[in-house]
Design goal:
The protein is α+β, with helices and mostly antiparallel strands. The protein is built from 4 helices and 10 strands, in the order βαβββββαββββαα.
Length: about 200
């Protein structure tokens, strides 16, 4: 794992805000008051009406090795959620995933599944997170060019159900994404019904 200085953080913020709107507020300490190794921020817009976006900010300071090659990857994590969900709950999920990524010292790849680990928020039907490109947004949003520090990949964490997580494991991520395209579930809804698989 290599470290970089605060590489063009202003540019990264501008990259996010062009698509997701201004940052409303953020978190820099965990629930126990300890400083986090990265921030979490909430933006004013999501993928549609009544949704908002959350992301890590600063996770990309660490270049993490790909599990499949010698390539080093810098990324920030993105989640979309209904506006009414308690912001601290979504921030907590992103904090846990970000800490996990740092702790295991390897980058996330498209098709990875984190969990299942029980309802992501109280009463939710979704129990795991599926890693993919932020396909609800313009194509150029997926990667931020940090100049001499390399590219920052935006990894979208999509909440999925137990059965959907099993399907990714047994059929592969490309087959799962075909199902997402065919059935077009509301992946921002943490209480949605599972897809037909």
């Amino acid at each position: 794992m290599t470290h970089a200085s605060d590489h063009n953080v202003k540019g990264l913020v501008e990259h996010f805000e062009r698509t997701l709107g201004p940052i409303e507020y953020g978190w820099s300490v965990d629930p126990d008051g300890a400083k986090m190794p990265f921030q979490i921020v909430r933006f004013t817009r999501g993928s549609g009406p009544e949704s908002v976006s959350y992301s890590t900010l600063g996770l990309s300071r660490k270049a993490l090795p790909s599990p499949n090659s010698q390539q080093l990857i810098r990324h920030e994590l993105l989640m979309l959620a209904p506006e009414f969900l308690t912001p601290d709950h979504i921030a907590s999920v992103l904090h846990q995933v970000g800490e996990m990524v740092i702790g295991r010292g390897r980058a996330l790849l498209r098709g990875d599944v984190i969990g299942p680990a029980g309802a992501l928020v109280s009463g939710a039907t979704v129990t795991a997170l599926y890693v993919t490109a932020p396909m609800y947004f313009p194509e150029d949003f997926a990667v931020f060019d940090a100049g001499g520090h390399g590219a920052v990949v935006i990894a979208w964490l999509v909440p999925i159900t137990d059965g959907e997580a099993d399907y990714v494991s047994s059929h592969g991520w490309d087959a799962f994404e075909d199902k997402l395209v065919e059935q077009d579930p509301d992946v921002v809804d943490f209480h949605r019904s599972a897809m037909t698989l």
